[in-house]
């Protein structure tokens, strides 16, 4: 069924020019969107030495090593491409300038000097799982993960509650100045977020919320985007349905909770996805209000891999993949509601 849908053509049992252009466009778009993510995912399994190689490789290839008699550590293997020993596989003892001192693993007593341009490393597919296991030894990963989950979940719940109540009032209640209030809310979208950082920090500091998760949660629970999205969707709910509930002696809270919210589920799912992405990926504001490491989110923990003199790229990439997984899972679960929610929010 799926294959018959994908393999449909405009021509009769053969590909038309339009079909080739469509497939080419789709494949190019897929590579453009998922190519960098796949590259980061594969690079997270590379060692620091493999990450510094040029030209880079897509697969996590590592130089093969072998134990040689008389040496305590495994030696890297190289295939000789020119000279007297062309075609041989030798182990490198050390590199001195443009020459490498090598040894045949079968005859470890004889040392051979080879130019570094006359050899190439023997590679094999190797996944450096240590990049991930070291995260749990070097950092309190689960603590940072819990901080991010707590802030994201609580902020999303409060955001949906506040924005949906504001949208319900603006969509279904008629009062003087309703459009003025709505336009003022929308106008805040034109204010750059960086302008609000100082006054919001002063308020948070006066409330004693600095270095607590609530300093990250409260300032962003009311979003004009969420109010606009939900209001536009709630305008499509018939007023007669709400009036019928009121005639059955339903309170305004009951009308909102039992009728409006279930009917606005597609738009709420879109807002949930947006809110989760905003809160999970937020970096600048948590960096300002969270100074204690035990309160750090995963995004701030990622910043710890960036040193002044040295950066652990293998750990940084592994941490990036672990940070991407939760948001990807949420998006995959709720993505079917995105198109419906956004499309119907624009229908009055």
Automatic annotation (TrEMBL):
Swiss-Prot/TrEMBL keywords: Cell membrane, Membrane, Transmembrane, Transmembrane helix, Transport
Coiled coil: none
Superkingdom of origin organism: Bacteria
Cellular component annotations (GO), alphabetically ordered: plasma membrane
UniProt cross-references to Pfam families, sorted A to Z: BPD_transp_1
Main localization (coarse): membrane
PROSITE patterns attached to this UniProt entry: ABC_TM1
Membrane topology: Multi-pass membrane protein
InterPro entries xref list: MetI-like, MetI-like_sf
Single GO biological process annotation from the record: transmembrane transport
Name of this protein: Carbohydrate ABC transporter permease
Organism whose genome encodes this protein: Jiella flava
Higher taxonomy: Bacteria, Pseudomonadati, Pseudomonadota, Alphaproteobacteria, Hyphomicrobiales
